[in-house]
Design goal:
The chain has 414 residues and is an alpha/beta fold. The protein has 11 helices and 15 strands.
Length: 414
């Protein structure tokens, strides 16, 4: 009887101790002492961020490190929601001469995202309704990065050249049916690379957008003389539609800045209407002759994206943080940069559950530093801007797991 009594006491003590340990280490990860920027929740201050499993558990001024299994010291670093790149090309495949559609020129997401603090990408029209399922099966379902998509109004997707000029393959109904079938993955419809003077590609994309309550992203212009941006914004697009390559200066495309270096007056009217302006840097679609005067006039982008593919990533664009660093050195503030790549990007694609550090939200987190020195940033035509600072990703966390750690600050940390 005495032995049984001792066993019961031991069991009670063990359970009590287990409860204490469990309570003491209620968080799987704690990021301590970093400068948290979360525009959705109006946070711009030194705070701690606690993670439990795959979710944000707490954001507070001083969380006891004893309550976490793993602690990352983020003193002197920025802690932000995982970055969202809303213009990428990820339909990688092995079919020759297909441009960005199941082809060699697209890039696998996990190879470039996490090292830049990016946890969500949005493929911008590489696939159409005819081959979205192939893209989903080959890329989306096999990526640790969250992959969403705009699908092309061209049913065959972004195959390049003549394939993207076929108005007969721009089917609003079939596009809308595909969007509705995969609403959790498809965020909108893309128009791109059309070289004619007709408005049919834009109008058919907008028709599909109306059928699905999804935004349209427009890569616009190819006629000679160029079609009017004012007519595009005021007569064809809706509030919430996205104009990408906003700072491009390309032949047969009207720029937002005129020949005298002045922002065209209707651009601000378009913004008031609710048109969203995205960077979409790409290989040829970003020019300082457009960006610098526009920013001086107070016209900053709603969202900052890469238009990443094998050409742009090995050219002037490089990656998301490099594009953000260009805008940093042109005068955009750190909070504004983070907002444009987190909460504003989430708003643009109507996935506002992303891009923030709200409690119970998914724990997608970037820890960034600013490196000081002399750096060169070029645009599409080789013009060089010298800068004194650039953004660097130290750690990326995707759904509560450390997926990138530049300097080992999360390696075995306690």
């Amino acid at each position: 009887m005495r032995k049984i009594f001792k066993c019961v006491l031991f069991l009670i003590a063990f359970i009590h101790l287990a409860c204490i340990i469990s309570k003491a280490q209620q968080y799987s990860l704690l990021i301590k002492g970093g400068h948290v920027i979360d525009s959705k929740n109006n946070i711009d201050a030194v705070m701690d961020v606690a993670v439990a499993g795959d979710s944000i558990a707490k954001v507070d001024e001083n969380i006891d490190p004893a309550t976490a299994l793993r602690v990352i010291n983020a003193t002197g670093l920025y802690v932000t929601p995982g970055l969202i790149d809303i213009h990428t090309h990820n339909f990688i495949g092995t079919i020759p001469n297909r441009y960005l559609n199941n082809s060699y020129d697209a890039v696998a997401p996990d190879g470039f995202t996490f090292r830049c603090g990016v946890t969500t990408v949005v493929d911008a029209g590489s696939s159409g309704w005819r081959n979205f399922e192939t893209f989903m099966n080959q890329t989306i379902q096999h990526s640790k990065t969250r992959v969403l998509a705009f699908i092309n109004i061209v049913g065959g997707g972004m195959r390049g050249g003549a394939y993207e000029q076929d108005i007969n393959d721009m089917d609003s109904k079939m596009t809308a049916l595909t969007v509705n079938q995969y609403r959790n993955l498809i965020v909108g419809i893309k128009v791109a690379h059309y070289e004619g003077a007709e408005w049919a590609p834009v109008d058919r994309a907008v028709a599909a957008g109306k059928l699905t309550d999804k935004p349209v992203m427009v890569d616009f212009g190819g006629s000679n003389p160029p079609l009017s941006l004012e007519e595009l914004f005021m007569n064809h697009l809706r509030p919430g539609d996205i104009y990408t390559h906003a700072y491009a200066q390309i032949k047969r495309r009207m720029g937002i800045v005129d020949e005298n270096g002045k922002l065209r007056p209707f651009i601000m009217d378009a913004r008031k209407k609710g048109i969203l302006f995205d960077v979409g840097h790409g290989g040829t679609s970003f020019s300082y002759t457009q960006a610098i005067p526009a920013l001086k006039a107070g016209f900053f982008p709603n969202t900052i994206s890469t238009d990443i593919h094998t050409g742009s990533m090995n050219g002037a664009m490089k990656d998301q943080l490099n594009v953000m660093s260009k805008f940093l050195n042109m005068g955009m503030s750190i909070p504004a940069l983070i907002k444009a790549t987190t909460s504003e990007a989430a708003f643009a694609i109507k996935h506002e559950e992303l891009g923030n550090l709200s409690v119970k939200g998914v724990a997608d987190i970037a820890i960034l530093s600013i490196e000081k020195g002399k750096f060169g940033f070029t645009d599409a035509v080789g013009t060089r801007l010298e800068g004194s600072q650039k953004l660097v990703c130290e750690v990326t966390i995707r759904a509560g797991k450390v997926v990138y750690d530049l300097n080992g600050i999360a390696n075995g940390a306690k």
